[in-house]
Structure formats: structure tokens, C-alpha cells
Design a protein that fits this description.
Blueprint (H helix, E strand, L loop, with lengths): L2 E6 L5 H18 L8 E6 L5 E3 L2 E3 L2 E6 L8 H18 L18 E7 L6 E2 L2 E2 L6 H17 L3 H13 L9 H9 L6
Helix pairs in contact: 1-2, 3-4
Length: 192
């Protein structure tokens, strides 16, 4: 459902990409009720691209994300999401960490911007029409039979998703949000 796209000028190792993709998947799916199967993360090396800021040639790392926006997602949710992503980047790639091998110690490894684009008009993924933001529970309920059929048919992605939905109790609507349920299960936040 969301599509996160890193444009990086510094070389990222496979393990850094793996860690960033896992972190963003966890952050987004925890913040909202999106199953992990539908969180997409892509990396593009733009070290050869010509980028200008204020008319001056610059190199920088950026993250663009196409997300579903709606009344169920408040500005505070997006601020928290970007803050968590920034913290993940700093931990995995950030300045001063020895994980980035570089010939020039002055290379800027910071994440210059995180841009969330919430103007998705329509999307299908894996053959399913993606619901509007906040409609995930009903969407899961409406498609549950097909998700299970695909899982039982051996589709590893849907096996993973069906297991996750059950573990996180994403389809239960007892007045507790998916975020609160996950935080409680992990011993985090006010819900713990």
C-alpha cells in the first residue's frame, strides 16, 4: 500500500538496505493497521544524478513515500512516523557510524528530507483494490477468504500475512486500535 523510495547518493550496503526496509516496514505497519506484506521499500542510487539546491549542485539522501491519507491519520501520526524513520536512518546509516565505508570522511550521510505524498487516487496490489486510509479492517474482513485460500494454496506471502493478521488481531474491532494492540504485545508505550 505505501511505497517508500530512497534516493541515496552514498553507497548503502545490502545489510543497510535490509535493515532500513525492515525498520520502515515495522514503523509503518505498527503506526497504522497495514499488513507488512503491503509495505513497499525501494532504493535508488542517485550518486551520478545532477541535483541542485538553491541553484547549487548538491548531493544528498532523500526518502519519498506515497501513502494513503485520510481523516483516520492525523498530522501528529505523520510527524511521529517521520521521526521514527529519521531515527532508524541515523541508527543504521547516520553520520559518524562505522557502518558506511567511505574514502572521504566528510561525505554527508544524513537523510536530508522525508517527503510524504498522500495523494493516492487508486491502487491495486497483488490483485486487490487497496482501501482508503482507515479502511483496513473492513478490507481485511472482505478479502479474508481469498487471503486464506492463497495461503492454503502455498503462497508464502499470504501465509506470512494471514499469520501476522491473526497474531496482531488486526481484524478485531473491540475499540482498541491496531497500534495499541501491537504496543501492548511488545510492551511499548501507554498501552503496555
Amino acid at each position: 500500500m505505501p511505497f517508500y523510495e530512497f534516493k541515496h547518493h552514498i553507497p548503502l550496503t545490502v545489510s543497510q538496505k535490509d535493515e532500513l526496509a525492515a525498520a520502515i516496514t515495522t514503523i509503518h505497519s505498527t503506526k497504522f493497521s497495514t499488513p507488512k506484506l503491503f509495505v513497499n521499500v525501494d532504493f535508488h542510487d542517485v550518486s551520478q544524478a545532477s541535483t541542485y539546491v538553491g541553484g547549487q549542485r548538491r548531493t544528498a539522501n532523500h526518502l519519498f513515500a506515497h501513502v494513503r491519507n485520510g481523516p483516520s491519520r492525523r498530522r501528529e501520526d505523520w510527524v511521529d512516523l517521520t521521526s521514527q524513520i529519521q531515527q532508524a536512518w541515523d541508527k543504521i546509516v547516520g553520520p559518524g557510524l562505522p557502518k558506511v565505508r567511505r574514502a572521504d570522511p566528510d561525505v554527508d550521510t544524513s537523510l536530508r528530507s522525508i517527503v510524504l505524498l498522500g495523494s493516492m487516487i487508486h491502487m491495486t496490489e497483488l490483485g486487490f483494490t487497496v482501501p482508503a486510509a482507515g479502511g483496513d479492517v473492513q478490507w481485511l474482513q472482505d478479502n479474508w477468504e481469498e487471503f486464506n485460500r492463497r495461503a492454503e494454496g502455498g503462497d508464502e506471502d499470504f501465509k506470512f500475512m494471514v499469520k501476522e493478521v491473526k497474531e496482531r488481531k488486526l481484524m478485531e474491532t473491540d475499540g482498541v486500535s491496531a497500534q495499541q494492540k501491537l504496543e501492548e504485545a511488545l510492551g511499548w508505550g501507554d498501552s503496555a
